[in-house]
Design a protein that fits this description.
The protein is α/β, with parallel strands linked by helices. 17% of the residues lie in helices and 28% in strands. It has six domains: 86 residues, Immunoglobulins (Immunoglobulin-like, Sandwich), CATH 2.60.40.10; 84 residues, Sandwich (Immunoglobulin-like), CATH 2.60.40; 77 residues, Immunoglobulin-like; 247 residues, Alpha-Beta Horseshoe (Leucine-rich repeat, LRR (right-handed beta-alpha superhelix)), CATH 3.80.10.10; 130 residues, 3-Layer(aba) Sandwich (Glutaredoxin), CATH 3.40.30.10; 326 residues, Collagenase (Catalytic Domain), CATH 3.40.390. The strands form 15 sheets. A ten-stranded mixed β-sheet has the order 26-27-29-31-33-35-37-39-41-43. A seven-stranded mixed β-sheet has the order 52-54-53-57-59-58-63, with helices on both faces. It starts with a helix and ends in an 8-residue tail after the last strand.
């Protein structure tokens, strides 16, 4: 039964299949079998390769022809197959890969195609294991810090710090080992030796070594304290020391009250010192040195031990009494309670703290005279010392350097001498130091740079020399630096541009040279910059235009050249400061681009009127004339100015005056001189629109109709103004005139005959006087004015009857001095105030009045027909070297000028001073500096003839030529002394008084000069056998001593700033017979 069913199932199945084929046979071509699809059969679908690469063979069958291709981008660079095609059937392809040297796995796909069939073989190659670091060396400073090591790895890794560095290098954070950065903290290296640490980063067979190099500290010794103050009782003190070197302690051998304590064994960084009780009366100090000789470093610990307060008070009292006695306390202006039993706090000028210890002394302008005693060392708490404006002498005590609490020292305007003590550099608390107005000499100590708290230092008006120390640029707190009026040389330190807090810098009136440092333009807080009256050269740095805070700016009286930078002229202070910038020595600054205009003004005049810029606009040219009623130069210049204004006022010349005098005095001056132009009084100079013009007298400026200055009296001497006006308005009559009548030439007139003695000969003559000026009496008027001018001064006035005075007429072809003019003595004007002529011709005219045997002791004076200010004396060697009374003829040349006052001053200085008495010039120029030795020796050769009796080459008051006068109380009021500066040189030569006829020329002769004139008059009048008696001279000179030789007005106002002394005398080292 079961077999049946199996048979039946098979039959049914066959029948079913046949039926199906019959049903579908209509679309298969009559029942044919359809074609088979392409087939590809792979032995494997993957090919794996190691890092090293290689080849794998893959077998497969294909029912049709086939192709193979690597399809991934750039995979064909490392993966290739062979062959790439073949027929149907069984086939093989070889897959080859190159070595994988990258840290990443890589894959590729190979596609085999046969007709519409395709198969993919996946190729993979293992990565190359890698472990690298970006840098294997790191350098770290001694202070330590972080080190970050960047690791590039595709495998796990770990690090190891070598054991020797484990205590100073540590891993900073916990991070996964596959992080790209490992951060390590390097600790500070206290040692001086450098050190190394190696960090090894490993993974299996891979490793990298990173080395950290750390520098060692510079050898150091650092003290926790540099100063220790202890009571008078026995103490033990400690000092912490930080050091990376061995330290040796040195206690001075003469200090027996300090010992190093053995307690130090308990702390290797702390030192202990045992201090004995101070049984003395004063504070005692000692310096303990901590050194390392190998590295040559050291630090100082200063221990100051107080004294018993009761003893201190007693010691301070004794110190004050010693000071009182040393400085003439009985003659002080105020000495209230001094040396009494009252507390010292009640003594005038003495101040104490709450404990009664002295901390301030203020005795300025109190008539102190004498030396400052070393007893000040007892005043250990002193903070403030003010002894300025007294008569203190001697040197500054070095002991001041031990008063460590001093913050303020004022010793200015005394008569202190010697060097500035280096010990002052020990005053670490000092903020202000004023030593100006003394006679200090030597160089400025570079050690002052240690005064780190210093805000103000004034060493001006002394005799300091040498270079300015560049180290002073370290004084970062400095606000005021004043070294003016000294003899400093060298250049201005460029490092001064680092003094960023500086508000005032005074270096004026020295002999500084070189260029102005551009670095000074960095001093943005500067309000005052005074560099004038030096020997600076080059151009003005435009960087100085950055100093926008400047209020006072002085560069004048140097040798600056070039144009004035626009940035300078744009400064707010330019309108007030240009005079002290533009006025230079030598070639000077270019006027290119520099235009000075009258300020905007509207000011009241005496009489109720008002004058303004409209006044200038109404005139073709306008003169501004500033004068002082008391000024002799103004008194002499006013009449000549009036005559010029009267001459040209109808041609468009206007004038107005300014002055700071009292109005009542000005009105008297107006009446006295017949002034009919507007005058205004401006007593507050700072508020005046004409401020630059008001500090000097006389001062003139000429403005054109637009207000532009065309004649600047600040830059050009006022004495040249008359000639400028003459040229401006075109007066050529004098220039074109020529003489025709020479009949008066050589005519001799005796203006005065001696009635006492042998007669001393003076021969006067004039140059550039034409025949018409002789005919109208101008010549004779000038000769008489010259004679009267000479005899207006003592001793000439008293001994006038000892002189013969002659006038010899000389007719000149022309009346003016030009390149083409001809004058009797060929007169000329040289540089500055130099003038001269033909001496031989002048002497030939003198021989018309006196005999040849009297020529060697004669004085010849040539008065030149010019309004200019000048003068030069030519001094000839005597025919015989015997005699000490100024032998040798002289020829003095000077213009007649604009007034009798000018004639008086010039003939007194040139003829009476140089020509007759053979006196030296007593003025000096700072830019000439020190008198050269060879020049000194040259002048010493002439001294035995009685020349140069008013000047010397020593500052010793016991050895100078006028030493007798210095110890004679009868001359105490004449201001005699030993003043540096003579023979035109700033240093190396000395004069007897601050001013005299041989200096500014506007006052009489000083006592040594009067003596020299007196001496020569008597020797010439009474013969070489006449014997000088000092007491007889003093008796005669009594009337001159009673006269005040110096005006009671400020010295700088008495002499106009633009005033130029006359030219120094010219010594001719031959006799008059050899004159040419």
């Amino acid at each position: 039964m079961k077999k049946f069913f199996y048979t039946l199932f098979a039959i049914l199945a066959f029948v079913a299949c046949s039926e199906s084929d019959v049903d579908n046979g209509g679309n298969n071509g009559g029942g044919q079998t359809p074609p088979k699809q392409p087939e590809i059969t792979l032995s494997t679908a993957a090919a794996d390769f190691s890092t090293d690469g290689g080849s794998n063979v893959i077998t497969f069958t294909s029912s049709e022809a086939w192709t193979a291709q690597v399809v991934n981008s750039r995979a064909d660079e490392w993966c290739s197959i062979e062959p790439t095609s073949g027929p149907a059937g069984s086939a093989k392809i070889t897959v080859t890969t190159t070595e994988n040297d990258t840290p990443d796995d890589r894959t590729a796909s190979i596609i085999i195609k046969a007709g519409t069939a395709s198969k993919t073989i996946n190729v993979s190659q293992k990565q190359k294991d890698a472990l690298t670091v970006t840098s294997s060396k790191f350098e770290v400073s001694a202070e330590g810090g972080e080190v970050s090591i960047e690791v590039k790895a595709n495998i796990d890794f770990e690090y190891t710090i070598e054991e020797s560095a484990a205590d100073w290098v540590e891993y900073k954070a916990t991070r996964a080992l596959k992080t790209s950065n490992l951060v390590f903290e390097v600790k500070e290296n206290d040692d001086t030796d450098k050190r190394e640490a190696r960090i090894t980063i490993t993974s299996g067979e891979f490793s990298e070594v990173v080395t950290i190099y750390q520098a060692g500290f510079e050898p150091i010794i650092i003290l926790s304290n540099h100063e220790k103050y202890v009571s008078y009782e026995a103490n033990t003190i400690s000092v912490d020391v930080k050091s990376n070197v061995d330290v040796t302690i040195t206690i001075p051998s003469d200090v027996d009250w300090i010992r190093e304590s053995s307690t130090r064994i308990y702390s290797t960084n702390t030192y202990y010192f045992e201090i004995d009780q101070n049984d003395g009366y004063a504070v005692r100090t000692a310096e303990i040195e901590f050194t390392n000789k190998e590295n040559d470093i050291s630090e100082i610990l200063t221990i100051s031990q107080m004294a018993d307060e009761a003893k201190v008070l007693a010691a301070e009292r004794e110190a004050l009494i010693a000071f009182y006695e040393a400085t003439g306390g009985d003659n002080w202006t105020r000495n209230d309670n001094w040396c009494s039993d009252k507390p010292v706090s009640e003594w005038y000028g003495v101040y104490t703290n709450d404990n009664g210890i002295i901390n301030r002394i203020v005795l300025s302008d109190n008539n102190l005279a004498g030396i400052i005693p070393a007893d000040f060392i007892e005043l250990y708490e002193l903070e403030h010392l003010d002894l300025g404006w007294n008569k203190l002498t001697g040197s500054i005590p070095t002991e001041l350097g031990k008063l460590s609490n001093l913050s303020y020292i004022l010793l200015g305007w005394n008569q202190l001498s010697g060097a500035i003590p280096i010990e002052l550099a020990q005053l670490a608390k000092l903020t202000e130091l004023y030593l100006d107005g003394n006679q200090l000499s030597g160089s400025i100590p570079a050690e002052l740079c240690r005064l780190s708290k210093l805000k103000s230092i004034n060493l001006g008006c002394n005799r300091l020399s040498g270079d300015i120390p560049t180290e002073l640029s370290q004084l970062s707190e400095l606000e005021i630096l004043a070294f003016n009026d000294n003899q400093l040389s060298g250049s201005i330190p460029t490092e001064f541009g680092q003094l960023s807090n500086l508000t005032g810098l005074w270096l004026n009136v020295n002999t500084l040279s070189g260029s102005i440092p551009t670095e000074l333009g960095q001093l943005s807080k500067l309000k005052t910059l005074e560099l004038n009256a030096n020997q600076l050269s080059g151009s003005i740095p435009s960087d100085l235009g950055q100093l926008t805070e400047l209020e006072v700016f002085g560069l004048g009286y140097n040798y600056l050249t070039g144009i004035v930078p626009q940035s300078i002229m744009e400064l707010d202070c330019w309108d007030d400061c240009w005079p002290n910038i533009l006025k230079q020595q030598g070639e000077g600054l270019s006027s290119e681009g520099v235009k000075i205009y009258a300020p905007e003004f509207s000011i009241p005049t005496i009489g109720g009127g008002v004058i303004s810029n409209e006044f200038i606009a109404q005139h073709k040219y306008t003169v501004l004339y500033n004068f002082f009623e008391w000024c002799p130069y103004s008194e002499g210049f006013t009449p000549i100015l009036k005559s010029i204004v009267d001459k040209y006022k109808d041609s468009g010349l206007g004038i107005f005056s300014t002055t700071s005098d009292e109005e009542s005095l000005v009105k008297a001056c107006i009446d006295r001189n017949g002034i009919d132009w507007p005058c205004t009084v401006m007593q507050d100079l700072s508020a005046s629109p004409f401020k630059p013009f008001l500090s000097e007298s006389p001062m003139v400026a000429v403005f054109d109709q637009n207000g532009l200055i065309v004649f600047n009296g600040i830059l050009t001497s006022y004495t040249e103004m008359p000639a400028f006006i003459e040229e401006l308005f075109g007066d050529n009559e004098s220039a074109s005139y020529e003489s025709t009548d020479y009949s008066k030439d050589g005519e001799v007139k005796q203006l005065q005959k001696a009635t006492k003695g042998k007669g001393i000969d003076i021969v006067l003559m004039g140059d550039a006087f034409s025949d018409r000026l002789i005919a109208d009496g101008s010549y004779d008027k000038a000769m008489n004015a010259g004679m009267e001018g000479l005899f207006a001064s003592e001793p000439y006035k008293s001994f006038r009857d000892h002189f013969n005075v002659y006038s010899v007429t000389a007719v000149s072809k022309n009346e003016v001095y030009t390149d083409d003019s001809e004058t009797a003595f060929a007169g000329y004007f040289g540089e500055g105030t130099e003038v001269g002529g033909n001496d031989k011709v002048a002497m030939s005219y003198a021989l018309k009045a006196i005999s040849e045997d009297r020529m060697d002791n004669a004085l010849v004076v040539v008065m030149m027909n010019s309004l200019s200010y000048a003068g030069t004396c030519y001094m000839y060697y005597p025919e015989s070297s015997s005699g000490d009374y100024g032998s040798g003829i002289s020829v003095s040349y000077f213009p007649v000028g604009y007034s009798d006052l000018q004639i008086n001053n010039l003939i007194r200085h040139e003829a009476g001073g140089h020509g007759f008495a053979k006196l030296a010039d007593e003025y000096a120029y700072s830019w000439l500096g020190k008198m050269p030795n060879e020049v000194i020796e040259y002048h010493k050769e002439q001294t035995p003839w009685g020349w140069w009796k008013n000047a010397d080459f020593t500052s010793d008051p016991t050895k100078v030529k006028w030493s007798r006068f210095l110890t004679d109380n009868r001359y105490a009021s004449e201001g005699l002394g030993v003043y540096e500066g003579a023979f035109t040189y700033w240093t190396g030569a000395y004069r007897p008084t601050e001013d005299s006829a041989m200096n500014s020329g506007n006052i009489g002769f000083n006592a040594p000069s009067r003596e020299a004139i007196y001496y020569r008059i008597h020797k010439l009048a009474y013969g070489p056998d006449w014997e000088y008696d000092y007491e007889e001279f003093v008796k005669w000179d009594e009337k001159n001593r009673n006269k005040e030789q110096t005006r009671g007005i400020p010295y700088r106002l008495d002499i106009p700033e633009d005033f130029q002394p006359t030219h120094p005398p010219v010594v001719i080292n031959k006799s008059w017979k050899d004159a040419r």
